[in-house]
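User: Hey, quick favor. My workstation is busy. Could you predict this chain's structure for me?
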Amino acid sequence: MRSAVPWVLALVGLAGCKMRQPPAASHSPSAAPFRRADIPRIDVHTHIALGAGIRAARLLERYGIVHAVNLSGPPPDHGLADFVADADVAYGRLTVFTNPNWSYCNEPAYGVRMAADLVRARDLGARGLKIAKALGLSITGPDGKLLAVDDPGLDPLFQKAGELGMPVAIHTGDPKAFWEEPSEQNERFDELKAHPEWSFWEEHRKGLLPSWQELFDAFVRRVARHPRTIFIGVHFGNNPEDPRKVAELLDRFPNLYIDLAARVPAIGRRDAAHDQAAMRAFFIKYQDRILLGTDTGVGHGPHSLMFGSTGTEPPTERDADRFFESTWRYLETADRDIPSPTPIQGRWNIDGVGLPREVLEKIYYRNAQRLLGIKLPKEPLPPQHRGIP
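Assistant: No problem, here it is.
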């Protein structure tokens, strides 16, 4: 079994390189160049290392993202104030979420201590709480056993989040392919080949880890137990393979929102569960509950960028351009066979949903503004801080 991880959400496997300005279009020469909609974007799902705030702001503005939520903020006693200060230095373009101090789980009353930390985190400037998928997979309690996602000992933390009006971005279990045999038939084979440690297949078979379904059911129970707490089910509600189930949860729980981070390839595929018309109808129906997220990671140095996922080699500038352009094309056009934003997550192209402007505005920024109180910048970044560092 994996040992309990520390609270720190390291930017694992991030990679990158310097980039020039992207070309205006990726279509064939006979097609009209794609131009993203002139709508500001708030990205509610990024991971930005301490001190990389300005670098992240430069990168994201290049692709139309004017504000980002950094989900990698630590607990109060482990440098949260520094992350908040870095967000301010980055021209106020970042909002910080805090993470729990999981080391508290080694002793009784861990949930009470985490709740007290959350109050301090709010006072320091954190706007929300991030729960990583380590909960249910590697975090252990005082008895040394795995803590479930719906462990009652954590109730005080989630209750306090609701009292403070701090949304909880929670990642549980997904993708399902990580629980399947990592063979060439696995749709995430390329990703698992590059990162074999991401596979839970063997540990689950040995009875050391819960099943994907057990984790997801615990996530549902957690959301149900705290109706006054806003939850953001990251990565398309932690179940991009089954939009119908996500829709059922959105209908059942008015306190549940979802983000799109790193799951456009999954929801853009052409199959019975994700056909173009059905997915467009999903976005239209739940337009007030969907948030833009990309899972972009920004660190320091020449190998410190991530766009949704990583392979064994640093991404090229073409990878970055494709990642953002394909994401915008998926949402803004009804194009067929759009190159996947992250081919390592599946060997297929995607079909766009062509959303109306009023829906795009909600997903791109209005919903995030309403949940998090984020104000759009009045001016672009100063000229000396434009482009890719």
